[in-house]
Structure to design on (481 residues):
């Protein structure tokens, strides 16, 4: 036994020194970010009751922006709400938004920040990656946030998100939406440590059939599903491939669907997906912008990417922007043209079953009653809009004027409330819930002629944003010189 007349004081001093050393290692400028508490990021960066600060510190921001479309990671230091994280991977993200940002000569790209890209074990309180959404073609800054709030309300596993004031080398860059990227931390949070496989299916070309991305069974060969298996988020095994292909084969038959599909989750997902009129999705021409989770042969579809939701995606549709009556009254039973629906078995084959079809309508009634008609939607939208308004007003790289932003917030609220009226009418038989029925009764829908969907974000906004973004870029260059 150790004996010393001051042994208690020595032990206390040693404990204090150890604690201080631990804090220094955790918070010092050269630290490896520690996962001190599992999934602690949930209550830090993704506390959506306030606007956070993300300062990206990088040697040559101009060069990064110039090469953004290459989507190559570079190393940077990131300060999140005052805490410093080094050797973080940074790259631009997006498909059409990435291409159009470059084509219009703009510099405000959506971004990905990956903590373990260059640093083994790197993380932000358990989070491996998050993105910063630039609100491309979303003057309201609210479309993705509100769509995720709707999905979460319907108990669909949904990425966390919150607003972040982004700086570059200490200079203001703009108001972005921080979004949890569905990878390891997302899977642990939603499905536990012993989670299954996660995919982000994506098309190879709009000219190709992309049957795999549509979740159609092709054959038993894994090479026939590159749009899925080449986009696995975790190390892929032959067993993973076999389980998923077997699930697609069952889905194709339309029988015993519970053995291959999380049916309840899919019905909840499609309730919101159809409500928000998002055709840049599984139900659209491209068939992408979703995540697919597989565990023990059961497939679960998960939400992703809503900047072109609420009727603002036009590819493959007939004059949707010019005729808001078509979109706001779009039928909930046939939410796409037949040529698309027949090739989307995860929706089509589920809805062929009477009990699933009835449950889908019940979920719509629940969503309308408890989210839209209860006032929850309007309260959430207005509370969030008020929180971000001062930041949008001073956003140096925004795609629109502040007045355009305010108009877009009003428009988004109007669109959703009218959409809720239309869906309620469809559920109660006052408005045809199918494309054929609406063609036979063209005047039966809600009058949406007062809506200007272009106010939510249009290409004209991109044409006027260049000067603002260039000025912000010059400010950063001068500071860095």
């Amino acid at each position: 036994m150790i004996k010393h007349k001051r042994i208690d004081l020595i032990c206390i001093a040693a404990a204090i020194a150890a604690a201080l050393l631990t804090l220094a290692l955790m918070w010092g400028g050269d630290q490896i970010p520690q996962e001190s508490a599992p999934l602690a990021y949930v209550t830090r960066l993704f506390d959506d009751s306030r606007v956070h600060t993300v300062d990206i510190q990088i040697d040559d921001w101009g060069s990064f922006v110039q090469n953004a479309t290459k989507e190559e990671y570079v190393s940077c230091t990131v300060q999140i709400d005052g805490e410093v994280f080094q050797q973080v991977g940074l790259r631009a993200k997006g498909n059409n938004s990435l291409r159009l940002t470059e084509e219009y000569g703009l510099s405000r790209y959506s971004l990905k920040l990956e903590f373990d890209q260059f640093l083994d074990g790197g993380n932000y309180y358990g989070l491996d990656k998050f993105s910063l959404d630039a609100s491309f073609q979303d003057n309201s800054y609210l479309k993705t946030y509100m769509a995720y709030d709707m999905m979460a309300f319907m108990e669909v596993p949904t990425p966390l998100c919150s607003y972040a004031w982004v700086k570059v080398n200490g200079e203001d860059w703009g108001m972005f939406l921080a979004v949890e990227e569905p990878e390891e931390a997302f899977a642990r949070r939603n499905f536990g440590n012993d989670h299954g496989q996660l995919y982000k299916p994506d098309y190879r070309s709009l000219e190709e059939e992309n049957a795999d991305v549509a979740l159609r069974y092709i054959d038993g060969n894994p090479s026939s599903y590159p749009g899925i298996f080449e986009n696995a988020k975790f190390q892929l095994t032959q067993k993973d491939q076999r389980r998923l292909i077997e699930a697609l084969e069952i889905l194709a038959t339309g029988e015993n669907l519970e053995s291959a599909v999380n049916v309840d989750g899919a019905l909840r997902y499609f309730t919101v997906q159809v409500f928000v009129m998002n055709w840049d999705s599984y139900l659209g021409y491209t068939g992408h912008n979703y995540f697919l989770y597989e565990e023990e042969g059961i497939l679960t579809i998960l939400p992703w990417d809503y900047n072109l939701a609420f009727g603002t995606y036009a590819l493959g549709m007939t004059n949707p922007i010019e005729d808001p009556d078509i979109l706001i009254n779009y039928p909930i039973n046939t939410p796409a043209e037949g040529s698309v629906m027949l090739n989307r078995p995860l929706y089509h084959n589920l809805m062929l079953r009477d009990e699933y079809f009835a449950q889908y309508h019940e979920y719509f009634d629940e969503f309308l009653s408890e989210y839209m008609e209860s006032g929850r939607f309007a309260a959430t939208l207005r509370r969030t809009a008020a929180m971000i308004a001062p930041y949008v007003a001073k956003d140096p790289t925004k795609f629109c004027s502040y007045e355009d932003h305010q108009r877009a917030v009003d428009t988004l609220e109007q669109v959703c409330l009218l959409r809720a009226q239309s869906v309620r009418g469809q559920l109660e038989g006052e408005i045809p819930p199918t494309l054929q029925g609406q063609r036979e009764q063209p005047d039966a829908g809600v009058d949406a002629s007062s809506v200007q969907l272009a106010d939510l974000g249009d290409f004209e906004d991109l044409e006027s944003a260049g000067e603002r973004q260039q000025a912000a870029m010059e400010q950063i260059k001068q500071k860095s010189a």
In short: Residues 402-427 form the longest helix (26 residues). The first strand starts at residue 52 and ends at 57. Confidence is low (pLDDT under 50) at residues 1-36. The chain has 16 helices and ten strands.
